[in-house]
Amino acid sequence: MLDYPSLEAVAAVVQTGSFEKAARQLGITPSAVSQRVKLLEERLGAIVIVRGQPCTATPLGTRLCRHVESVGLLEYGLQADLASLLPGRRPATLRIAVNADSLATWFIDAMAATDGLLFDLVLDDQDHSADWLRRGEVSAAVTAHAEPVQGCGSRPLGAMRYLATASPAFMRRWFPNGLDDDALARAPCLCFNAKDALQSRWIARVTGRAIAPPTHWLPSSHAFVDAALAGLGWGMNPEPLARPHLAAGRLVELQPGTALDVPLFWQWSRAIDTALAPMTAAVLAAADRHLAC
């Protein structure tokens, strides 16, 4: 039989990164947290926490943390019946993998519409976020993959529309004669990180060629827009973030009519399907308001 106070101590250490912060979260002493973790490791005959700055979980520790999360979410699903039996219990924590542009444009609305949960978000590209589900490290994900991960459900959300945008001054400097292959090969572009293939996909669609322009690396959705406004480079900005700047003339499209739509899907663990139903409903509603059909 698993010792749940010890499991909760492990999860708190991993979530906060230290025994001291875990102790404050649990309302006990750091010594008590250490004893609970040590007791669990002795019973299992394996290390579950890698001590360091910050503390991290071993593969076994990660599995135990997800188990604690699943139990908390199952209790969350019964909160109406358990409220009188478990007064003062901490809200359940839901770990989700989500892409940065969704977080910057619509996903907060879904979080705000769901009561009684704490969120632990992992940021990753939409083409890779499902890997976190596949490894069992999150309970749900916003992903570009329609095919559900084994043991998961999948629902379409709509498409995030991206526009290739830059400032008018940037266009005058780098594309004085209009868009062409040579100019695209010289003009600096913006890229979120090494997983971001949107700029390359847009270039290939517009030119039919693989062109590798000089690149600024900016791992922030809002910094992407700010950099385009400042004339630092051109990039594929989410239409919801670019829209007001396009309307005001602060940004322009490199080539109108070449939007790139990226379909998104909500995948979640079916093991906690009922408990996640309110979150799933909130995600679908928020996506319906913000994403392209």
What does this protein look like?
With 293 residues, the chain is an alpha/beta fold. Among the domains are: 67 residues, Arc Repressor Mutant, subunit A (Orthogonal Bundle), CATH 1.10.10.10; 103 residues, D-Maltodextrin-Binding Protein, domain 2 (3-Layer(aba) Sandwich), CATH 3.40.190. 47% of the residues lie in helices and 20% in strands. Strands 3, 4, 5, 6, 9, 10 and 11 form a seven-stranded mixed sheet that branches. Helix 6 links the parallel strand 3 and strand 4. Helix 1 crosses helix 2. It is elongated and about 70 Å long. It starts with a helix and ends with a helix. The model has no long low-confidence stretch (mean pLDDT 91).
Quick structural overview:
By secondary structure, the protein is an alpha/beta fold.
CATH homologous superfamily placement of the domain at 160-262? Periplasmic binding protein-like II
Averaged pLDDT? 91
Question: What is the count of DSSP helices, taking H or I runs of 4+ residues?
Answer: 13
Distance between the termini: 48 Å
Structural class: alpha/beta
Main sheet record: 7 strands, mixed
Q: Secondary-structure element order, as H and E?
A: HHHEEHHEHEHEEHHEHEHEHEEH
Any idea what the radius of gyration is?
A: 23 Å
Poorly predicted regions: none
Percent of residues in beta strands: 15-25%
Q: What is the CATH first-level class name of the domain at 160-262? A: Alpha Beta
**Would you tell me which CATH topology of the domain at 160-262 applies?**
D-Maltodextrin-Binding Protein, domain 2
Q: What quaternary form is this?
A: single chain
Give me the count of strands.
11
Helical residues, percent: 40-55%
From the spread of the alpha carbons, the general shape counts as elongated
CATH architectural type of the domain at 160-262: 3-Layer(aba) Sandwich
